[in-house]
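Incident log, support desk, overnight shift.

02:14 A customer reports that sequence design results differ from what the structure should imply. Their input is reproduced verbatim below. On-call engineer (initials T.W.) acknowledged and began investigating.
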């Protein structure tokens, strides 16, 4: 079972739709199910209107999910249980470091461990919860990128599992959500490859199954930046889904025939399912420009 889990902070852009298409084709071409989860746990970034727009966009492009749409915000009870479980294992500690102090602390992104000796008893004010990262190497084999490993203590340090505002951090939330939904295969952007060892570490601590991972290249703009809401990527145009799907398949290196762009969405999706080959993505990074064909950087 695969999944697509967008954050409802805005409408889907081409980069998001590209990843959605890849994960849809991977799951459905293998005879599996593809579920949709709205990662709306962050109230400051989530909008109901954006969630509705995401659903309409996926439907317009023939990317139909199986079962009911899941909403991350409805799973907060399980998050609290997991935090209690980790605390019972003496793995959590409160961190009162501000973002400003962490940024000024060092050039490295590795947490320096300032609050590692603190305990929850007696800690006042707002604080994040960090997990003590073991001095161990977590390794796995990505289905597209191959072997990947990371020493958590040396490369990441103690990482946040609950933010200062009380919102559960991405790594813990996605691990629990994927487990509860029975996700067996995760296909997502290569920008998340380096976060996977942290998630596998949490899975092992909580006694959860680790899905198979496949990290695909991401779309970038003419400046080499990943298409995202933060770089003001524009919303997907719903007026011509056929040509857009064809262009996405080109970026996915699936070499669809030119005449396929004029076919209905259902015909294009069916062709893509029959010809899907994720190994064709190996080593590719793409650029998305409106005025010329996709090309490898």
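02:41 Re-run completed on a clean worker. Output:
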């Amino acid at each position: 079972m695969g999944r697509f889990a967008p954050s409802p902070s805005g409408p889907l852009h081409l980069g998001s739709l590209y990843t959605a298409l890849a994960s849809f084709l991977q799951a459905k071409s293998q005879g599996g199910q593809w579920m949709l989860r709205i990662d709306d746990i962050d109230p400051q970034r989530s909008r109901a209107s954006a969630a509705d727009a995401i659903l309409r966009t996926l439907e317009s492009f023939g990317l139909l999910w199986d079962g009911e749409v899941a909403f991350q915000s409805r799973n907060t009870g399980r998050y609290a249980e997991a935090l209690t479980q980790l605390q019972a294992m003496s793995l959590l500690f409160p961190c009162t470091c501000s973002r400003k102090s962490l940024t000024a602390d060092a050039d490295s992104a590795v947490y320096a461990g300032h609050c590692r000796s603190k305990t929850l008893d007696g800690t006042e004010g707002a604080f994040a919860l960090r997990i003590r990262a073991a001095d161990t190497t977590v390794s796995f084999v990505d289905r597209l990128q191959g072997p990947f490993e990371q020493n958590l203590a040396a490369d990441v340090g103690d990482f946040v599992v609950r933010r200062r505002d009380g919102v559960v951090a991405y790594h813990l939330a996605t691990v629990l959500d994927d487990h509860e939904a029975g996700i067996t295969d995760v296909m997502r952007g290569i920008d998340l490859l380096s976060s996977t060892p942290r998630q596998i570490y949490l899975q092992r601590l909580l006694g959860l199954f680790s899905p198979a991972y496949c990290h695909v290249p991401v779309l970038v703009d003419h400046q080499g930046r990943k298409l995202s809401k933060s770089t003001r990527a524009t919303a997907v145009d719903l007026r011509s889904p056929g040509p857009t799907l064809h262009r996405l398949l080109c970026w996915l290196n699936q070499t669809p025939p030119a005449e396929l762009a004029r076919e209905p969405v259902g015909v294009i999706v069916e062709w893509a399912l029959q010809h899907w080959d994720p190994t064709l993505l190996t080593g590719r990074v793409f650029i998305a420009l409106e005025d010329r064909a996709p090309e490898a950087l």
